[in-house]
Design brief:
about 375 residues; alpha/beta; Rossmann fold; Dihydrodipicolinate Reductase, domain 2; 9-stranded mixed beta sheet; 10 helices
Length: about 375
Amino acid sequence: MFKIKVLGAGSIGNHLSNASRAMGWDVDLCDIDAAALERTRTQIYPSRYGQWDEGIRLFESKDAPKGGYDLIFIGTPPDWHVPLALEAVKEKPRAILVEKPFCTPDMKDAQALFDAAAAAGVAVFTGYDHVVGKASETFSEIVTSGRLGTVETLDVEFREFWGGIFSAHPWLSGPGDTYLGYWKRGGGASGEHSHAINLWQHFAHEIGAGRVTQVQASMDFVSDGHVDYDKLCLLHLTTESGLVGRVVQDVVTNPPRKWARLQASNGYAEWQCGFKPGVDAVFEGGAQGQSAEHLFAKTRPDDFIQELRHIEAALSSDPTESSLSIACGLETMLVVAAAHKSVHENRTVTIDYTAGYTEAALK
């Protein structure tokens, strides 16, 4: 049985604590704010999962135990992810899970974390859980089967009004109360909905198209002297093999659309998160009009349980081969960083992976 420490008692911290308990693991949940811990115990956790779990131990961060954990989960705002992960490496857990987006767009200390974790023998994962869902696995099976023919293009969209986030965090009055309202802190559409970039990269890897090497971006910013975030992020991407495709992320679309489509010479595959309430879907169509539909019933807690099952399995094999590996998370952050550079310099940006996970990789 694993022993878990969760840093951050917000929405993600509650989900990861609940999923860990569903796995039968011991959980210590920590936060710098005693009020956040009390809110978790009396409001968030009972309202989501039926009742508070007395098996979860609560600690203010200053009093939290150090060492002796199998896994440390970091579910804080993204501008704290890397600093806390660097500290967590020193505790020598088997693995660390960093919620998305992995870091801030300036890539500060991302390479230092990568190197420190590797030197310490600590596996690091990232919280882009959609890529390990059952729908994504089926989509990958279809597009790698060869029956669709030559791949032509790949599109992914995560278009979702972020009012749902604030409904889940009623103590927040809007994006200005949190990192979400500041792209430099990892917020805005480019950071919060970077699941789309990550999913595009994942499917590109699955079909052998390689890593993203060129990024051309357009963004629509909200900047009023208080908040400064992109409400719309449009990306055109090119990979090492020459695959060209598109990613769209926004925080305004309602009802939401979380969708992917791969078009090939003999057919297509589509992925839909939330095709209908409690159901994800994958559709396959052939050039002769034949079609297939695959439906996957799930709840929101199921997403995190599936993620932890994947991590448990990865730790029994090679964590660097996981689709949730630190390398995958940092490849996504390089695209986010390249997108902002593309917008602010009004040009296409090339990613040079030989320069590591740093701003210097953006040419």
